[in-house]
Amino acid sequence: MPVTRRQAFLAGSAFSLALARPALLRAQTVPEIRMIEAGGASGESMEPYIKPFTAATGTRVVRESPNPFGKLRTLVQAGNPPITLFEVGATALEQAKALDLVEPLDWEAINPNPIFPEARQPMGLGWQYYSTLMAWRSDAKPLQSWADFFNTKDFPGRRTMQDRPYMLAFALLADGVAPDKLYPLDLNRAFRVMERIKPSVAVWWAAGAQPPQLLKDNEVQYAASYSGRVAGQAGISYTSTRERWTAPTSWCPRAPTGRPRRRR
What we know:
There is one protein chain. This protein is globular. 35% of the residues lie in helices and 21% in strands. The protein has 264 residues and is an alpha/beta fold. The protein is built from 13 helices and twelve strands.
């Protein structure tokens, strides 16, 4: 089934829901909100919002990370998950909806300040954009494009890529598809390209902290990584804006997220 640009980019965040309506939470006397998020700089960026929110409402916000999709599925299927919010990417939100893991949001109650239309989803609220780019050890041969990343003959070395469907878009870019012709994704072509690089992928990462650590430990020489995880890291180089992939994350964005469904 073709994947459209809209499906690949939509994302949401349930955490934005909690921050948007402190008066509503006061009325419901919610003592604590537990959330699972991506961690790293993204997670820390929430603190300037969490502290005044807690001061205004008395509601404590407990952050946990990382946020692999399997964790959401396990928590919900076990029954009565102990969390309110779970950060997921746009494609993961679609999976969560298909598996009945998230619940609809009450947008009338949320009543947020103006937001991008694509951030307002039935089961997720977009809260940030994130980017994934190519990174490599500074002593490795520099990359210029996704074609270079997938060219293991001229750019030898072990790779790490995220265990997420949007890696297929990078495969198509590497195979010569123009960015403005990328959607709907040609999945058969993308998987053929992925098959060619698969022997060189040492790790399919799930947590954002993995790529920089793998590069520093010389476990891999090249990585598809969140930009915030490698920027400013000693011994790691990365691509310019031209070869960076930016998308919304959801409650996630990476990036939609909805409230985990409670089994009845």
